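User: I'm preparing a small set of examples for a lab meeting where we compare how different chains pack in three dimensions. I only have the primary sequence for this one, and I'd like the structure in token form so I can line it up with the others. Please keep the answer compact; I'll paste it straight into my notes.
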Amino acid sequence: MFGIFKLSFAREPLDSEVERQDKFYRIIIKAEAVVLAAANTSNDFSNDSSVLSVKETYAVPQIRLPLLDIPIFSSLYEDWTPYKEVFTAIIDKNTPTDDVHKLYYLRQSLKGGIAAKITNAVDLSSHSYKYAWDSLVSRFQNERVIFERHIKAIFDQQNIERESSSSLRHLLLDNTTVHLKALSALKQPIEH
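Assistant: Understood. Below is the structure token output for the 192-residue chain.
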């Protein structure tokens, strides 16, 4: 009725478990395609209980990514923007995570300073996360202060003690460029 198809289960040398799983899922996908094609071509058997229906779809497993570390914020204004972006992406916008867990992660990511004091001042409850996060944002999302801190860091760099290419590279690439890129991210003019 549906045609005969053969799936070969002959023993072939496989190098790893990943290859075995890959082959298994390819076979499942092929079998599913044959069943779906047969079901689509024979609509007159749709009420027949002998026609198979596929209730689950099998997908090839995706690559497992390494666990992400929660960033640490030490209450320095110049570190706020990268911290906020990463924390927002990993924790704040993670909708399956409830607010109590978000507040716990927020507290764990703050080491010392006023930021830790702000979050430790609220109870560990679901309604406190939004208040604590909004308090941090209103305190540290101050572009004028962030701008001033980056400018100050550029002008307060240590003098080069000994003339060498590594000292110059450290001064220009490691220090100055970081602050210039941060100013550029704040949409501040850095040319000339």
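A couple of notes for your slides: Residues 48-58 have pLDDT under 50 and may be disordered. Helices lie at 17-41, 77-92, 99-108, 113-120, 128-140, 143-155, 165-185.

User: Perfect, thanks.
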